[in-house]
């Protein structure tokens, strides 16, 4: 018996060398994990992504919205189910390299021809009595069967490890969905506040233009203005009223976008837009680029997918090598139930080992191996692309915050100057020292500047949210 085992293992070892030599040689690619040491010559490990979203945002209404969304958002809940599915895949792969044990019970009957070999045996043989075999001959069976593929080349264990890595990858995918969801809710919330302020501004300017229109009508009656001036002011009022309705529609759509993200039917979004102009992005710390590798869920997800793809290549390569299957069984079988449990007369057992090696027509195995290697190379490129995108996102968005701050300061001064010019133009127009076109252009310029100022403030808040997301904040 020992000699047989030795021969089997010698055969396996020899076959492994033979089939390893027959394994196709494929192009290999190793991922580049190097990133720049710092952003824009600033090297500070303080990182805003470490701050919880409940502390990063200070508006209690916004925090409540995000909390509702994290519970009800359908996309997030779908992702949570994907995590459960991936966890079940891990258990399935784990079970593949453990022995399979099946319990078998059965009953049947068989009638064989009297002039056959079995028939002749049954006719002349008895079991401790003078009676012949019953006809037809019943058969009763109860047994336990074991089958086990010995994982010589770690094919099954590597498949389990790959499934475990993909399970962890789905968790990182969920974290990425969380960061994205929080950023979308916050950006939409700030957009809603900006639209509220735009609506208030446009209503104020419509009132100013209506008053100017009444003045022009009076001047026309006094022969100090023409019908052209009246029509111009009327057109300007109508244009801004149309603009007002567009803003009101955008407010409805933005509210419903937030409601959709929160997983609920349309309802009013509670917010305080009066303090919008006082909003300022908090101080943000980008840290160092290497922190992206652990803070960004999409980077971690790409890394886990890459490690799983490497294991897939090993699994595919192992299919070129011999596989050893062991089967065994033990049980009882008899033609009469009263003999079924007689030991050892009714006992049966078996033990067998089977060594299987692919020899001819290995095209399917080669194709699977080539595909696994190609997917591993894809995973390398995807990982490098994700890291590069993360770094560029941080650089762009941090720079944008700085430039938007300077832009807002200039816009604010422009609005102040144009607001004063409206008062001056109105006085000059009433004293006939300025024509209606100067008044119209001054009002139009002031309105556009005010709207641009509100939009710039919104862009500042978006940039703050985007930097937080780009750094990997929100999921912790």
Automatic annotation (TrEMBL):
Pfam families: OEP (PF02321). It comes from the Bacteria. GO terms for molecular function: efflux transmembrane transporter activity. Residues 401-457 form a coiled coil. Keywords: Coiled coil, Lipoprotein, Membrane, Palmitate, Transmembrane, Transmembrane beta strand. It is a lipid-anchor. Transmembrane segments: none annotated. It is found in: Cell membrane. Gene3D superfamilies: Outer membrane efflux proteins (OEP). Belongs to the outer membrane factor (OMF) (TC 1.B.17) family. PANTHER family: OUTER MEMBRANE CATION EFFLUX PROTEIN, OUTER MEMBRANE PROTEIN-RELATED. This is RND transporter. It comes from Candidatus Brocadia sapporoensis. The lineage of its organism: Bacteria, Pseudomonadati, Planctomycetota, Candidatus Brocadiia, Candidatus Brocadiales.
């Amino acid at each position: 018996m020992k000699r047989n085992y030795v021969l089997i293992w010698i055969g396996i070892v020899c076959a492994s060398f033979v089939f390893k030599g027959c394994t196709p040689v494929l192009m290999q690619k190793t991922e580049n994990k190097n990133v720049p040491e710092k952003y824009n010559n600033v090297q500070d490990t303080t990182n805003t992504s470490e701050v919880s979203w409940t502390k990063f945002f200070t508006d209690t209404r916004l925090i409540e919205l995000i909390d509702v969304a994290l519970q009800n958002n359908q996309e997030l809940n779908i992702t949570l189910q994907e995590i459960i599915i991936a966890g079940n895949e891990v258990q399935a792969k784990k079970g593949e390299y453990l022995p399979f044990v099946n319990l078998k019970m059965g009953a049947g009957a068989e009638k064989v021809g009297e002039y056959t070999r079995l028939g002749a045996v049954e006719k002349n043989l008895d079991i401790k009595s003078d009676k012949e075999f019953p006809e037809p001959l019943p058969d009763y069976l109860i047994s336990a069967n074991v089958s086990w593929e010995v994982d010589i080349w770690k094919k099954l264990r590597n498949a389990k490890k790959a499934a475990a890595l993909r399970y962890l990858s789905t968790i990182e995918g969920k974290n990425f969905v969380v960061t994205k969801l929080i950023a979308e809710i916050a950006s939409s919330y700030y957009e809603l506040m900006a639209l509220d302020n735009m609506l208030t501004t446009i209503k104020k300017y419509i009132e100013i233009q209506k008053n100017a229109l009444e003045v022009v009508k009076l001047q026309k009656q006094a022969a100090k203005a023409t019908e052209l001036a009246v029509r111009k002011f009327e057109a300007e009022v109508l244009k801004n009223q149309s603009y007002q309705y567009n803003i009101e529609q955008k407010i409805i759509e933005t509210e419903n976008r937030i409601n959709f993200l929160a997983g609920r039917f349309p309802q009013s979004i509670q917010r305080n837009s009066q303090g919008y102009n006082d909003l300022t992005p908090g101080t943000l710390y980008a840290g160092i680029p290497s922190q992206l590798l652990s803070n960004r869920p999409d980077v971690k997800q790409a890394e886990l997918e890459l490690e799983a793809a490497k294991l897939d290549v090993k699994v595919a390569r192992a299919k070129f090598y011999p596989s050893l299957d062991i089967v065994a069984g033990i049980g009882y079988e008899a033609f009469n139930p009263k003999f079924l449990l007689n030991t050892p007369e009714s006992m049966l057992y078996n033990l067998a080992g089977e060594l299987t090696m692919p020899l001819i027509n290995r095209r399917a195995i080669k194709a699977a191996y080539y595909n696994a290697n190609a997917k591993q190379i894809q995973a390398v490129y995807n990982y490098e692309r994700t890291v590069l995108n993360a770094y560029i996102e941080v650089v762009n968005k941090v720079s944008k915050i700085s430039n938007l701050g300077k832009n807002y300061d200039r816009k604010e001064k422009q609005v102040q100057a144009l607001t004063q010019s409206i008062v001056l133009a109105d006085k000059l127009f009433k004293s006939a020292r300025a024509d209606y076109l100067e008044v119209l252009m001054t009002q139009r310029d002031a309105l556009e500047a005010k709207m641009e100022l509100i939009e710039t403030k919104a862009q500042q808040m978006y940039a703050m949210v985007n930097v937080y997301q780009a750094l990997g904040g929100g999921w912790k």
